[in-house]
């Protein structure tokens, strides 16, 4: 990575990190994609996501699977971790959390394609696993999003780890 591409990053390598447990999309930072000529996925697995049930105030736990195809900008991973931590005291239904994460990253990155799959731990005997995606309008990625949505979870995995 060129040195000039990291000048705006304030969190990476910072030893004085403050954790904000209030929803804060402004914490997200980006850097320039060095391989714009390639289509490729960047995938983050976030197994310790927490938010609050908006009805009971009890914590909800999930693993968030976030995959995107970058265009010009990429998300810096430490800022993404701090952003995810900011949901800790944020009330939100499971579906809201997944869509908010996706929309915040679309606004930040303007990616070619992005998908978020949130797999929440069951409460009351039911797990809720919202999936949302987006492809840049008027591109092949818009069609890709449509196809992936239509085929999403056609062959669900065996759930034996919850």
Automatic annotation (TrEMBL):
UniProt keyword terms in alphabetical order: Cytoplasm, NADP, Oxidoreductase, Queuosine biosynthesis
Record localization: Cytoplasm
Gene Ontology annotations for the cellular component aspect, listed alphabetically: cytoplasm
Binding, substrate: 75-77, 94-95
Alphabetized Pfam families for the sequence: QueF
Catalytic residues in the record: 53 (thioimide intermediate), 60 (proton donor)
Pathway stated in the Swiss-Prot or TrEMBL entry: tRNA modification; tRNA-queuosine biosynthesis
One Gene Ontology MF term: preQ1 synthase activity
A Gene Ontology biological process term: tRNA queuosine(34) biosynthetic process
Top-level taxon in the UniProt lineage: Bacteria
Reaction(s) catalysed by this chain's protein: 7-aminomethyl-7-carbaguanine + 2 NADP(+) = 7-cyano-7-carbaguanine + 2 NADPH + 3 H(+)
EC category name: oxidoreductase
EC identifiers of the protein: 1.7.1.13
Similarity comment: Belongs to the GTP cyclohydrolase I family. QueF type 1 subfamily.
Function field: Catalyzes the NADPH-dependent reduction of 7-cyano-7-deazaguanine (preQ0) to 7-aminomethyl-7-deazaguanine (preQ1).
UniProt cross-references to NCBIfam families, sorted A to Z: QueF-II (TIGR03139)
Protein name per its UniProtKB record: NADPH-dependent 7-cyano-7-deazaguanine reductase
């Amino acid at each position: 990575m060129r040195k000039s591409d990291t000048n705006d990053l304030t969190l990476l390598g910072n030893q004085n990190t403050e954790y904000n447990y209030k929803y804060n999309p402004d914490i997200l930072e980006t850097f320039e994609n060095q391989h714009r000529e390639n289509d490729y996925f960047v995938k983050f697995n976030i197994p310790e996501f927490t938010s609050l049930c908006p009805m009971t105030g009890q914590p909800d736990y999930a693993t968030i699977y976030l995959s995107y195809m970058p265009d010009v900008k990429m998300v810096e991973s430490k800022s993404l971790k701090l952003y995810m931590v900011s949901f800790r005291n944020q009330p939100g239904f499971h579906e809201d959390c997944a869509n908010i994460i996706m929309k915040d990253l679309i606004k930040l990155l303007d990616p070619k394609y992005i998908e978020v799959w949130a797999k929440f731990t069951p409460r009351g005997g039911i797990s809720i696993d919202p999936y949302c995606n987006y492809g840049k309008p008027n591109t092949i990625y818009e069609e890709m999003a449509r196809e992936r949505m239509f085929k999403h979870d056609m062959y669900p995995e065996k759930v034996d780890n919850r």
